[in-house]
Amino acid sequence: MAIKPLDGITVLDFTRVLAGPMATQILAELGATVIKIERPSVGDETRRFEPRLPHGESAYFFAFNRGKRSVTLNLKDHRGQKMARELARRADVVMENFLPGTMEKMGLGYETLAFDNPGLVYVSLTGFGQAGPYSARKGYDTIFQALSGIIALTGHPDGPPAKAGVPVSDLTSGLWAVIASLAGLAGRSAGRDGRGCHLDVAMMDVQVSLLALAAARLFVHDEDTGRAGTAHPGRVPSEAFQCADGRWLHISAGDQHWIPLCRVLRLDELAADESLLSNAGRLAARVRISDALRQAISLRDRASLAEALRLADVPAGEVNTVREVLHDPHTTARDLVGRFTHPTEGSFPALRTPLRVIGAEIPEISTPPLIGADTERVLKEDLGLDEAQIAELRTAGVI
């Protein structure tokens, strides 16, 4: 039997694009009922993002909106705002990612909604937070990567700065929005007389928090860390090396792995040098060690070398492409890639939410909704509207 830990929790989702929808998708696939509020006829912007499927749906939208109920509401209309407030009265969590003050202007701010629903956990996910000199600024993933120093840290020393290969600012902010939701729910259950709270999640704050190791070097050595390619700034050896077949292998060796690594690569001279037995010594000899490893590894094909290193208990990982990792036997065994059936696009592959309840079945991958697919159902079941009222709202463009 599949266990969904958040069964019984209702989330009212006002977010769009990536970070917020990712967060609410995780909550949905953990069992929460997520009602996604979208603009009538238009919906979440990502419904129009590439890549597109044969019947016009967006694979981008599919990646972050599974398992939700789509309800279209015009939040600029007082009737749409009223219905949103009524839905919030029944919700456990509200998540929004508008600029600060926007929800308040629509009568949907925390103070207003919490007055009717004191137990509400309200998560505001913004670029720069609810206060501060940049709070009114807009931004996207790469802007936060740039401002936070992540782009300056990424790339090779002799090349230009580079963004991360995945939208790390959006993805990590989405995870923190999930943490905020769960922390609010746990706190509500543990005390505070059942009261919820308003949580401020700023994407810029999240990115700065990722600088913990780079900041530690600055705090200790007053060193502003630069780009190091695949090399680790504080461990040697730890970087990717090109093998004889042109493929890349990443090796990361601690003190206990150093001698076994030298033996596999037949680097007897390095193994005999007692100054290299500690990481501190190897850090001081980084260039010498990297050059020696690069030369030795360039003579070996990747598959046999990776196997030899793992047999010697030396951590090594092939630098895989996306195609390779999605077809990797471990990925397959962990059932990380599944499928859902969409009403217009048919069967489509998807990456599972990476959480397992031990001893329980893995839940089926849920389906992303068509725009407004659940509007009538939610308005009838949750708000008690009848067919005539719903038809009037549709004619007026409220839904």
Topology:
Elements: E1 10-13, H1 19-29, E2 33-38, H2 59-64, E3 68-72, H3 78-89, E4 93-96, H4 102-105, H5 110-116, E5 121-126, H6 141-148, H7 150-153, H8 168-190, E6 197-202, H9 203-209, H10 212-221, E7 238-242, E8 248-252, H11 255-265, H12 268-272, H13 279-284, H14 286-297, H15 302-311, E9 316-318, H16 322-326, H17 329-333, E10 337-342, E11 346-351, H18 375-381, H19 387-395
Parallel strand pairs: 1-2, 1-4, 2-3, 4-5, 5-6
Antiparallel strand pairs: 7-8, 8-9, 10-11
Description of the molecule:
The chain is α/β, with parallel strands linked by helices. The chain is 41% helix and 14% strand. The strands form 3 sheets. Strands 3-2-1-4-5-6 form a 6-stranded parallel beta sheet, sandwiched between helices. A 3-stranded antiparallel beta sheet has the order 7-8-9, covered by helices on one side. Strand 2, helix 2 (59-64) and strand 3 form a beta-alpha-beta unit. The longest helix has 23 residues, at 168-190. It is elongated, with a radius of gyration of 25 Å. The model has no long low-confidence stretch (mean pLDDT 95).
